[in-house]
Amino acid sequence: MKLSFLFALVATATAQSQDAQSQGAQSQGAQGAQGAQGGYGAQSADAGDNYGSQQSYGEQPQAYAHEEHYSTGPVVAKCCVSVCPLEAPFFNPRTCACVPGLVEAEHHEEYSQPQESYGAQQSYGGEAQSQGSGYRKLQSAPEFTSGPRGTIDTRNMNIQRTGTIVLWVCFAIFFILACYYLKMFWWYFAIADAADGVVDGQLTPINSAIFHFLANPSLIAGCVCLIASLAYLTMATGNGWYTRCCDGRMFFYARYIDWVVTTPLMLHALCHFSNAPDEIWNFLFFSDIVMIISGCIASTICGGEKWIFFGFSILAFIPVLYYICILRDQIVDTTFFDPLTGLPTNQGQVLPFLWFYDTYSVIADLTVVAWFMYPIVWILAEGSGTLSVTGEAIVYAVLDLISKGVFGWIICNTQLKNNQIPIAAPGMPNP
Q1: Model pTM score
Q2: CATH class of 161-419
């Protein structure tokens, strides 16, 4: 009995001990779980605090933008500047898009509100909806007085309606003059060819030599005006140009193609009237080509290097003007030629170019003055951009008409010096 009681007491103590151990384990597990949960939450909170406290990531772009605003200087276009329409003539180099401009309130009160709303968008990447609404309100404005900050005004970078009309007028004038000068060439050549070797008292070989002498420069004058008319037709129809990438200015390369062909022909006519030796003609020819090509290269460059090429062009241009003036003062060849055969001799008549000494003086002075103006216009137009594209087209057109149209007119309607010998003999047809 005592043994059974003792055994029951031991069993009860053992059960209580096991319950205590299980409760302690549960409480310890709960504490561990609670501690683990508290540690994870704390860690998360700490991590969250650390991520939020790391303002460098959130503030770094602001600092970078702040630094860029004060250190990078002028905005460099990320894309080529394009010609913008009149409704949105300002090019934004940051967004590579054309945007409308601003209108001053005191001049156009009805557009003051769009100006304020658009001007408040200091950022170039503003909302398209705000820009669009401002554009719809401003597109009927008669004229934009200014553009948003940082944009490029392209209104003077492309040719306007007035310039296009001038190009069409020049095309018509040059084409009519070309037809007239070629007609004069054919008239001079036909009479000289029919009169060769005829000595009948009406037309002598001397007269034939005069017609032959005038036929060559008349042909040159006609070809020069015909090529110029083709160039102006190209520009008037909206071709023969491209937009410069840096500033969006229209560059008419067709004009330089015209010059590189026509100016050597004009120099040939000058050398013909001055009886210049072949060495002088060759030198003037290559100097003129170098001058035109250098100027064309300078026109395509937007940086400071363009002035180097422009200076190179001027170095080639100065000898051309120099020899044109020198030839005017050195026409002293008084070689005689036989009046029947036209061959050089010790007696007879002087060479035909001396009969047109006054003509060379006129066309030489005209060429020097007109050609001297071209570099000045280049500096104001392609060089510095002071002159608008429309103004550039008008000034170049006037200079071309003077240097080519008037030049050919003087040649084809020249008169003998002191009227020594009549050009048209009795019974000969008139031009």
Answers
A1: 0.67
A2: mainly alpha
